[in-house]
Design goal:
By secondary structure, the chain is of the alpha+beta class. The chain has one domain: Protein Inhibitor Of Neuronal Nitric Oxide Synthase (2-Layer Sandwich). It is built from 3 helices and 4 strands; from the N terminus they run H-E-H-H-E-E-E. Strands 1-3-4-2 form a 4-stranded antiparallel beta sheet, covered by helices on one side. A hairpin with a 4-residue loop joins strand 3 and strand 4. Helix 2 runs antiparallel to helix 3. The termini are far apart.
Amino acid sequence: MVAHKTIFVLMVFAVVAVHAEIPEISINSSQVPNITYEFEAKRDLELGYSLHPTDLPMIVRIFSELYNRTFPEPYGWKVSIGCSLLYQPAAAQVIYVALNVKTKNATSVITIFN
């Protein structure tokens, strides 16, 4: 009887996890060499939310690591949440994608940059 109870609990947990809300993600702004950077950023962030819908530190870690697999950077990709200004000196070659993340309660901006 204990085995059946354990299986039932796991099934209920799986159903709850599947129904967790994945936010609506769209491009806010970017400075990229080509559109593939935007497409991959959106896809990688969506995957982070689908794997850990309520754990923001884990979401951004997965986001950065996945993005670095596609577009390798020597020191990895940095992620900022809620930053409204990104200053870039004229000599710097900064690549970034800022994404709008809209949930039921709010919209925030998550930016990934080199």
